[in-house]
DNA sequence: GATCTGATTCGATAATTGTCAAGGCAGAGA
DNA sequence: TCTCTGCCTTGACAATTATCGAATCAGATC
């Protein structure tokens, strides 16, 4: 799977100029909002940070990091998955999660303000 | 008001390293999530883009851009305001909104992935 | 096959949220 | 002062969502 990591890459990545540069159309906003929404929950934001700050991480380790039930963590991971922010891969007994750098980069690009070097 | 733009600024701005660098604590996630949540609605994301892509913009212009009632727009603007993403100022009859670049920058920094130039 | 462990799905419930209609407040002008 | 306009607040309601327990599924091991 590490081979075909190019499933939905650049297409999404090259969506829109930064918010500070041009307003979004309704459609663009509708497409992008779910990603922000996925990060808009403290549990998911922390899950995302745990996933993004390692190469890959097992669900068991993620579950241990919270005082929440397995199904609840699973639910939040699904939201992150469906938003396109993370990828999941089952390997033997465990499921491993990893971040989608392109997605994060896209969001970062949207929020970009007055890139110092670009001036 | 443009003078005392220092109401809740730098404190928030210097929060955390990028998600991809270090995981967030529960408290950090709790503080940051509301900003993402505020952007997690298509209407608000588009509002934010309209506000951020101009110097300042009147509520009347924002309302005109949507097929939504005044109170609904007002509600969304309040969410953006309370998340610290925008500032509002009443001038005569109209209320003007402007973006808080620091807030956007903070979020962009959080999502920053492997800054090419930093390698 | 039987069983055990890790993770997801299902079903239910309480809490949050997006939306609007109605009402209220602030400033401008008659 | 009265009225008009622009915006916000309140109250209500439908829809969404966060959470958990129970059930189910996927592999591994016996």
Automatic annotation (TrEMBL), chains A, B:
An MF annotation (GO) of this entry: DNA-binding transcription factor activity
Pfam family name, one: HTH_5
Record-annotated HTH arsR-type domain positions: 24-119
Keywords: DNA-binding, Transcription, Transcription regulation
Domain of life: Bacteria
UniProt key word RNA-binding: no
NCBIfam families: HTH_metalloreg
Protein name as annotated: Transcriptional regulator, ArsR family
Source organism: Micromonospora pattaloongensis
Organism taxonomic ancestry: Bacteria, Bacillati, Actinomycetota, Actinomycetes, Micromonosporales
